[in-house]
Amino acid sequence: MKKFIAFFPVIFLATILCNAQTLNNNWTSDLETDLREFTSCDDDMDCSEFSGKALQTVYKLNDFYQPKEKRYMRVSEIIAFLQESTSWTKLGPAYQQSILNQAQEYANNKKAVIAVLPGANGVGHVALILPGELQASGSWGLSVPNSASFLTIDPAKSYVGKGLSYAFTKNHLKDVVIFARNY
Questions:
Q1: CA distance 109 to 46
Q2: Do the beta carbons of residue 139 and residue 96 sit within 8 Å?
Q3: Can you tell me the mean pLDDT for 46-67?
Q4: Per the count of CB atoms within 10 A, which of 9, 29, 66, 68 is most buried?
Q5: Are 149 and 84 in contact (CB under 8 A)?
Q6: Helix/strand/coil (H/E/C) assignment for every residue in the chain
């Protein structure tokens, strides 16, 4: 029993550290490298994995990696995963300024945040919220969080370090939902 009591704090601390949020110190340059690779990608199947890989690049989380398939999830798989996962919480719609503020605050506190647009065709789009500052968006009429977007249908419109409104049009705003990783 004494061994257990002495060993319990070590197990407890290890559990906390394994589940703690973390941020890649070189996330900006690593994500820019991912963006260059994505925009020069010529295989649609491999290119669709960059949205999932971005989570690992920035936040060191492999939630969107599928070990059996040995690949990152595609956008449609990420959207389905987020809606069913107990590791992620729906913060709310992107048209609410308080949700956008919360999303930026979470990202600045090294917590992973994703914006999701479920697609009518089953594909949709996701954008990763990045650490940074809220930026005024003329098209949305809101202050939006810093983000990255890997747009498979139009790779030239992909970016790192722009406001979330670059990823989704004003017409899409009503359908964009923000999810945050639980820690």
A1: 31
A2: no
A3: 92
A4: 66
A5: no
A6: CHHHHHHHHHHHHHHHHHHCCCCCCCHHHHHHHHHHHHHCCCCHHHHCCHHHHHHHHHHCCCCCEECCCCEECCHHHHHHHHHHCCCEEEEEECCCHHHHHHHHHHHHCCCCEEEEECCCCCCCEEEEECCCCCEEECCCCEEECEEEECCCCCHHHCEEEEEHHHCCCCCCHHHCEEEEECC
Q: Which amino acid is at 16?
A: I
* pLDDT of 26 strictly over 80: yes
Is pLDDT above 60 for 19? no
Position 89 scores a pLDDT of 98
CA nearest neighbour of 132 among 107, 155, 114, 150:
107
Domains of the chain: 22-181 (3.90.1720.10)
User: CA distances (Å), 170 to each of 92, 100, 142, 173, 175, in order?
Assistant: 17, 15, 11, 5, 10
**Angle at 156 (CA atoms; ends 166, 113), nearest 5 degrees:** 40
Which amino acid type is present at position 64? Answer: F
